[in-house]
Amino acid sequence: MTLPKINPIKTKGWRDLKNHFNEIKSHTISHFFANDSNRFKKFSIKFGDLLLDYSKNRINDKTLEIFEKLAEEIKLDDAIESYFKGGKINETERRAVLHTAVRNQSNDKLIHDGIDIIEKIKTERERIFKFSNEIITGNYLGFSGKKISTIVNIGIGGSDLGPKMVTEALEFYRNHLNIKFISNIDGDHIHSLLQVLDPETTLFIIVSKSFKTQETLTNGETIKKWFIEKTNKDAVSKHFVAVSNNLDKTKDFGISSDKIFPMNDWVGGRFSLWSSAGITIALAIGQDNFQELLNGAQEVDFHFKTAKFNDNIPKILAMIGIWYTNFWNAETEAIVPYTEYLRSLPSYLQQSVMESNGKNVNREGEKINYQTSPIIWGASGTNSQHAFFQHIHQGTKLIPIDFIGFKNSLFKNDEHQKKLLANLIGQVDALMKGKNEGEVEKELVSKKINEDEIKFLTPYKVFDGNKPSNTIIFDKVTPENIGRLIAIYEHKIFVQGIVWNIFSYDQWGVELGKELADEILKKDNQNSSFSLENYLFS
Asked: Taking the complete model, does pTM exceed 0.90, yes or no?
């Protein structure tokens, strides 16, 4: 099963969207609300305790109808079937894309290359849970007989961003273990961390599918050298764990076979937190909470496969994103979670979206003449309000926003939560409604400001409004809801890749710079020197 290869701009749906854009481009979101008393009900979706409000967008009923027709034309449902059934839809690497299978809790078989991989997944998951439980309960002891108290995750890209984001998001559910992350090849950062680590009570987890990733292996070797200097070579097998498919290299490193957890080639790094690469998450929050994380994601998988178009959260969000990227010429999308627990979500999504859909060649190997992935960025609210919201409100660029909020505080601090949510709602309303010249003048008059000052100030205090946003609201931060949230964005990535007729699951653009870096290092190894000036100014 491969993906359909349909140029979107040659479809009737795309042409209809262009014509429709010209019909409604002068209409405001406030205008749509004024002309439809049921707008919120029609343009929102409830899913469990999740509410998606997408009514604050530059769309109407006809927009949704064309979205659905375009999805049918590009054979989205056929692509979804291939995705979940293990078709090798990552065609440039001849691989399936089955991170959804890793969180599958059913007993249904999924045959891949003649093997039921569900049984294999369950076996590996049980190994992870057994090992993490031994660490958490203190039954596992380091080389000197002391319990493990610190976990250091050594990885990069999805092997770092995914586990880091989730362990931060679920900090409320964390146990006593101290979790650290090393990703950058910056030696200063590593040595500053090593200064405060106790080798007798620290477990290092090296996450690299190939066990060849330059940054990860360099960091691993540096840490191993420090560790042996502080202990002895035989102690390595008790304090180092690998998530990798390269058994030879992991064993050469000194990692014992019972501490090697495989990561299948049909799970891409940026979608790997559900797999063995999530062992740090399991250590941080325990088996039951990790299981809830998987359950939440699986619920969204089922929703994505079965819900009708107008009730399908990933499909709707994906099409809205395409609407702004390809028809309104928006270049970016902002992610603004109103919880500090999700402070790393924008960075996580930046990688998963832009590495997936930042492509300029279609599924037939031809150059594309339309935009693909937007630039993803953001920060937590209310910090972001004092950083970049000035630009969103009164700048010259159109920046659609996803607001993410939670009704209830985990610590039951209602006063803070009320103010936090008031800010979220206030921003959504302000972006949509704006403030016109008459409203500004009335406000200034009420403050008894003189006429000349009013005339001077008015242009600076006008807000155009009509700024689009989606609002995603959950009851509270739980492992299940974090699983749901991540899965929604994963499937949004998939849908947009299908519409844009690109391969979302390779990342060849990552390779060139790494290859050139290797060439530079080979040359300098031969010359026994490294001169930055020679490269920058030659």
From this structure: yes
